[in-house]
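User: Show me a protein chain along with its predicted structure.
Assistant: Here is one chain, sequence first, then structure tokens.
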Amino acid sequence: MAALADAGPSGLTVEALCERAGKTRGSFYAHFAGMAEFLARLAGHWRQTFTEDLIASAGKSGPPSARLDHLNRLAVRLDGRIEQGIRRLAASEPAVALVLAETDERRVAWLAQMYEASGRYDAKDALALARIEYAAFTGLQQIMPNASPQDLRALYQDFMRLTGRA
């Protein structure tokens, strides 16, 4: 994931990865059948660490509003370069695109579940709000790629205030 963050998808060649890790091509192929397997496993690792682990942590935070806030505090600390890299990689790698699509759906569904559980929104409005919030999250990574966690947290607080949830 560090190679993806530093160089983007073009940094994910067998040669570049082996050089970065100080390993041989043979070592790479001892662990992976090929680049396709490596990329599929990379996407799975990204999903686990950038989504499932965060949701699991946030799920222990009390009422839905606390869970949402906890998730957002964790999300703004993630390396946005990795998220952007996965999205660029998905444009040319079908296996990564599938993981990305499933992950996007999982994230939106979890947000919608929290909004509906808050009692303030019916299922339709909860889903609409989740989609809007998620679109803002992914969009900010594109238009503000160098934003600090503090900047993103401030924008999240503005979002909460402007949507009447602060």
